[in-house]
Structures are given as C-alpha cells and as structure tokens.
Amino acid sequence: MKGLILCAGRGTRLHPFSYSQPKTLLPVANQPVLFHCIRKLLEVGVTDIGIVINPSHVQIPECVGNGSQFGATITYIHQDKPMGIAHAVRMSQAFLQKEPFILLLGDNLLMDSLTELVRGFQEKRSDGVVMLSEVKRPQDFGIAEVREGRLISVEEKPARPKSNLAVIGAYLFTTPIFEAIDSLQPSARGEYEITDAIQAMIDRGLVIAHRTATGKYTDVGTVERWLEANRWMLARELGKEVEIGKDSVVLNCEIIGPVLIGNGCRLENCRIGPYVSIQNGVQLLNCAHIENSILLEESCLQDVKWKLKDSVFGRSSHLKGELEKHMASVILSDKSSIHLPAGGGDEA
C-alpha cells in the first residue's frame, strides 16, 4: 500500500502567511501540517509516499527531503494547475501503479488513526473507503448519503444536503478510481472533483465503504482554523504541560500550559498561555499576556501592555507597543513591524 498527500493548493485564504511558504508547511504545534500527515501514514505502516506539489513550491522538497528523516521514501509529483483533487490523483497514477493507496489532503488534520480506514478496506473487501465526519454546515462540504449502513451517494457542496456527514480529507482507493476519474467532466468551478469520482464508482456498482471519525478534524485553510488546530494539537500532545526547547531562556514569567517553546528563545517578564506555540529564536520581552496564539521563527514582541489573544506573528515580525488596551488580536505577516509609541499615536 502507498500513500499520496496533496500539497499543490494556493492557500489564498491563508494570506499573508502563504505568500512566503506553502500552507502545508505552516506549523501546528511547531511542526508543519505536512509532517503530521506523513506521520499518520507511518502509523499504519505506509512508507512509500507521493507528495503532489506545484512546481513553484520548492520549499516542500527542501523541508521534507527524500523522507529519510521519517523513515519513509518520498516521491514528488508536479501538478502545474490546481484542477482539483481527482486531477491530482490522475497525475499520480504512474507513481501509484496498481497498488491500493491512502489519499490525504496536506492541509488537513485528523485526530483519528487511519487504522479504521485500512480496516474498512480489509474487512469489507471494498474498492474504496472514505472517512466521514459530522459537520455543522453541510452545504460547505462534500456530503455523503448513507442508507442502511451503505454509502449510496456523494454530492459536492449541495444546496439541500441529504445528511450532515461530510467526506473529509482521508480516503483509501484501488485502481478503479482512475477509470472513474477518466470519465469525469470539470465541475462548475473548473475542477475535477473527487466526490464525482466516488459517485461514478458507486454508479458502476463498486463498493465504497465508509468510516465515521470520532475525533476532531479540521482543514488548516484559514487563520481561524489554523489557530483552532494548533489549540487542540497542543492539548493532545502536552495536556497542560509546558515544553521548553534547547538554549531557551525564561526569566520572571508565568506560563500556563499547554505551551510549546522552541529552541533559542528568550522570554522575560511575560504571562504566556494557554495554547501558545513559539517557534525557534522568538523573543518576548515585557508582554502582559499572550493566549491562544502562534509565533513563527525569529518574531519579537516587546513592551506590549495589553492582552494578545487569537494572534499570529509571522517570521521575523516585530511588535513593540506601550498603548494600553484591554485585549487585541493581531495578525502580522513575515518581516513586518509595528511600533506603537507611548504617547498614544499609531505608527507602522
């Protein structure tokens, strides 16, 4: 069995952070989202992994390499244009050959193990398995209709959903998926939809099994969802603990876990947490309170007298301010600087 992770998307909803790096490399609990996907595959014994990327996303092979750091073998597959999930799968056929494969979306995080996905394939002797999850806004997702335990239809973003069970970013397919994809026409948005391919398989009488996720799931597609994913990943990995990296200095600080502090950081006279991840080389000096936030590499916050919550600070960004407020949410892109002088005026 092989693995396939799709990472060719533009990530426009994560601007400004996805201007400088692919969204699948943005960190959740100080690890790129893509790394979490790779480890999910390794947990079920899948080590031969293809990653679909846009040719311009050179940072992904630079970061992931050949897979040896994970004990995996990585093959890169180019998708020049974002023409949909099914198109990306079709572009990967030479790599996948005739083996069954697990398909993951590289910007999705799933708490559940993929064991149930594999078990559904083995026990049902199916031609594919999809992972489902209950959602609050089914019209925003590909929605599955299940009747008497059988998956009978899948529809992409229906105006009148037949259920609240969304097809989330974890699938297992066999070779009939390629014939189904070849029969597709582009959707109204000009993409080849994986939900249409699944429906084509069902219409041909092929068996598509399903499993319903019991744990949390999110796509890291917006800043809000990124912060949400970071929050529950920190809670899962640390509980209420605090982890401090090598050569980091923490002086006169109150830290409320879960908080993850990278290497070479300096924190002085601050209240931090809960749910804060701090990457390598960050400086936090005289900060009143930072909660539920992400600080990327080499960012610096100094003399911030108000509470920061639900904030993201880009790489090498700088915030210095003495303007007193009750609370603020700040989104600051890479290499940006804001200075709020003590007199009360704003200067950027």
Automatic annotation (TrEMBL):
Keywords: Nucleotidyltransferase, Transferase. It comes from the Bacteria. The keyword Transferase applies. Its EC number is 2.7.7.24. Transmembrane segments: none annotated. InterPro entries: G1P_thy_trans_l, NTP_transferase_dom, Nucleotide-diphossugar_trans. This is Glucose-1-phosphate thymidylyltransferase.
